[in-house]
Design a protein that fits this description.
This protein has about 230 residues and is mainly β. The chain is about 5% helix and about 40% strand.
Length: about 230
């Protein structure tokens, strides 16, 4: 069963469980076993992992289904992500770099094609697109598939089954105050060539999503394209 954790914003860094992303490095610390873990105690941080010059977001998952949680970190300066596979307690393999769209920031790790392996979804602000990288079943990833452009620059991501068809959809909040939802209609790792854009206040967005989820027509066509280079 893949393992997932949350990312928490804290000042000028991102805290990912016990992982902090800052100044081009990932600083790691291991949660102690119970009952110490229940008390929130941490061991001293282990050596840093180099992530690049512009780390912006991080997510964790057991990408190789080895029983050990790894992490993915976005590098907005170099237009790539770095994946560190978990190899043991508080231990990670060296980074594998994958090119993505321009200025990657937020990142998610979730299984969108139902093969049991976490895939990676990346939000890129400058290109106003979302990139999807599918897990190859060994903890490696294929080339990025881009979806967009969206209605604005995506700055945050969340995944969930918004339609109720058993497949994971992806929603992004953008710089124009809108929320776009990419619909996963087949469960094969691709999203439909349509997305829902919600705008206005929170109350208005809730009303819009309730209305549109009851229809079969989705506005705003977008075209997915496969990226081999960035």
């Amino acid at each position: 069963m893949p393992r997932f954790s949350r990312v928490f914003a804290s000042g000028f860094s991102l805290r990912f469980a016990s992982i902090t992303v800052a100044a081009g490095h990932v600083r790691r610390s291991l949660m102690l076993p119970n009952p110490a873990r229940a008390q929130g105690l941490l061991q001293s941080p282990s050596p840093n992992l180099t992530t690049g010059t512009g780390p912006q977001g991080a997510a964790a998952a057991d990408f190789a289904r080895s029983g050990w949680v790894g992490m993915v970190v976005t590098d907005s300066t170099n237009k790539n992500i770095k994946v560190f596979l978990g190899t043991g307690p508080n231990t990670f393999a060296g980074a594998t770099t994958y090119g993505v769209c321009t200025n990657p920031t937020a990142v998610l790790a979730t299984d969108i094609n139902h093969d049991g392996y976490p895939d990676i979804i990346v939000a890129c602000t400058s290109s106003a697109t979302i990139d999807v990288l599918l897990n190859d079943g060994s903890g490696g990833f294929g080339g990025a598939t881009a979806y967009g452009p969206l209605s604005g620059q995506p700055v945050a991501l969340v995944a969930g089954d918004f339609v109720g068809n058993g497949y994971v959809d992806v929603a992004s909040a953008d710089s124009n105050g809108n929320v776009s939802i990419l619909l996963n209609t087949t469960g094969d790792g691709t999203f439909s060539a349509s997305h829902v854009t919600l705008s206005g206040t929170l109350q208005g967005s809730q009303q819009a999503i309730s209305t549109r989820m009851g229809t079969s027509t989705w506005p705003s066509p977008i075209t997915p394209t496969t990226q081999s280079t960035c």
